[in-house]
Amino acid sequence: MFKKFIQSNTSKNSSLKNVYYLIHQYGPISRATLLKITKMKKTTLARMIDELQKYNYIIESGLGETKIGRPPTLYQANAKCGYLIGIHISRTESRIILTDLLFNTIELESFTMTSLHTPAIVLPKFSKFIETVIDKYQITTDELLGISIGAIGPLNIDEGIIINPDPFPAPGWVNVPIANYFSEKFPVQCTLEYGVNMAVFGEHYRKFKEYNNILYCMSGHELGGGVIKDGRLANNNYVGDVSQYGHMIIEANGKVCTCGKKGCLVTYTSPQSILNNIMEKYKYEDWEENNLDRLKIDHVLDFLKQGDDAIDRLVKESAYYLGIGIANLITVLNSEVIILNGPLINEYPNYYEETVKSIQQHINPYHKDEVHFSKASLKDNSAAIGATIYLFYSLF
Length: 396
Known about the structure:
Layout: H1 2-7, H2 11-26, E1 29-30, H3 31-38, H4 42-54, E2 58-63, E3 73-77, E4 83-89, E5 93-100, E6 105-112, H5 119-136, E7 144-151, E8 155-156, E9 161-162, H6 178-185, E10 189-194, H7 195-207, E11 214-219, E12 223-229, E13 232-233, H8 236-239, H9 266-269, H10 271-282, H11 297-304, H12 309-333, E14 337-341, H13 343-347, H14 351-362, E15 372-375, H15 382-394
Parallel strand pairs: 4-7, 7-10, 11-14, 14-15
Antiparallel strand pairs: 1-3, 2-3, 4-5, 5-6, 8-9, 11-12, 12-13
Helix pairs in contact: 7-15, 10-12, 12-14
């Protein structure tokens, strides 16, 4: 019933969906506020609220504050009307999440990506999770609104295909028709987008609705960037390949990058590159692993956090370079909010603060006071939860 309501685009239903959308986005909300936003007649809005309540799409959510008279009744969307599946696939870790309609996490599963995690292993693992939660919570086809996937690129979004991303630990991640894989198994809408786009969409909804220009930077193996421009998720053709921001040149004739160029930002900022630089500069021959490119991120962080002053200087130097790269992006995109995420940002002492300091040193001085900084509020779940939020609002 709810899925049919969301999917119907008749003239009458569109007006009802618009009221529901506003209640979902801004609730708990009063009738008076809805009247100001919609400019509807009181009787028309009252009829629509009654209809939404009749089908249990919205519920009363307490009373609002008032200085005089009777406190207004507040309304919000009923979280139990449906469910959403969000998936995030990255080189180091993948996760799948089940949320309700208010994007509260109900079930979550994550796992480290290893040399064994080919598509033939990962996709059935996700399918098993979906089958398990459908059975556990007795979710009907009408209640499951869709499956939304955020992944590293490059992607063919229209066809739902992971094309040929930089190497995963496991082989096989080339031309993977991931959206079609799930749509054949589950009779619901399946979408594919860049993970960083899903993350910025989720952060925008959760914490930064009042801002129209947001830059989300995920600094890990690469530097990915998701962009909200003029209040909307920026088109990939406008911002370029969102997974490749780390390959902007920030030092001419600098270190050789895996892409073949010299001085790419990522050669100074990824944990693995920092570790390689440390081994090269300080000759830490006693490090227990010989093949540095196969080290897990948590091993890298453990080593970097040992407290050695020489290591700390080199790590903080990478924050300086990261700040330069992000300052360049701010100049191009005119961003108001900068959201930073990644293992070093979240776990290495003062790395976030050093990055922000560097950004402020290198952005246009007239722009400095207008830029706001934040860590990702959803952290590791940003892309998976953002995927469910993106899927839900795409229905409107």
